[in-house]
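[step 3/7] fold_predict: job queued, chain A
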Amino acid sequence: MELQKHNPNQGVDLMNPDTFNQLQRAAKAFSSSTIVPKEYQGDQGLSNCIVAIDMALRMNLSPTMVMQNLYIVHGRPTWKAEFVISRLHSKYTDLDFEQDNQDGGRCRVVATKADGTKVSGTWVSMNLAKSEGWASRNGSKWKTMPEQMLMYRAATFFARIYAPELLNGVADQYEALDAPESYARESADIQRLNDLAADAVQVDQDNQDDDPPMTMAEALADDID
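[step 4/7] structure written:
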């Protein structure tokens, strides 16, 4: 059985024992690596690997790429801002940023759709960042690198409208950091879900002691297939 998606929006069937067992073996191979982020390493990272692999299959990406570009904020996965921009460039070859000095400095993304239609994202300005409280947060990057933050947020706003499938419903890291209360409210529930996933993995491991763990090469080969 190959661990692969059957359509662009379908991940792993976690209710299928055979598929889940193969997913667990692949996750164990990744969790044993020392070059994946620490959130995915060891027994504590095993359930995170399962989530990352499922997301990778849904998005037709390498699990390694997903793991390297997910940033955990208040227990929730978010995309690194640079990853959002790289995903947009994979869809829009002429993607560009427009900037001017209105509203304290502002930025938006412009691009051309496959049918030739020109599209423009929402303007993101420093005045908006101040009114929304993004720039007043302790440690806010809006204070130290405002031009970069304008481009990051403009890219995410554009993706929300014109390429939501590239984000798979996941926020970018600075969106989460700029709205800590809304993300922190769900952190306890997410931790409970992570604990349940970890317990399920452990039970399945106990029942499959004779099944050897998948090697990294096997995991990557399955992903390529």
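[step 5/7] annotate
The CA atoms of residues 56 and 176 lie 21 Å apart.
The chain has a mean pLDDT of 83.
exit 0
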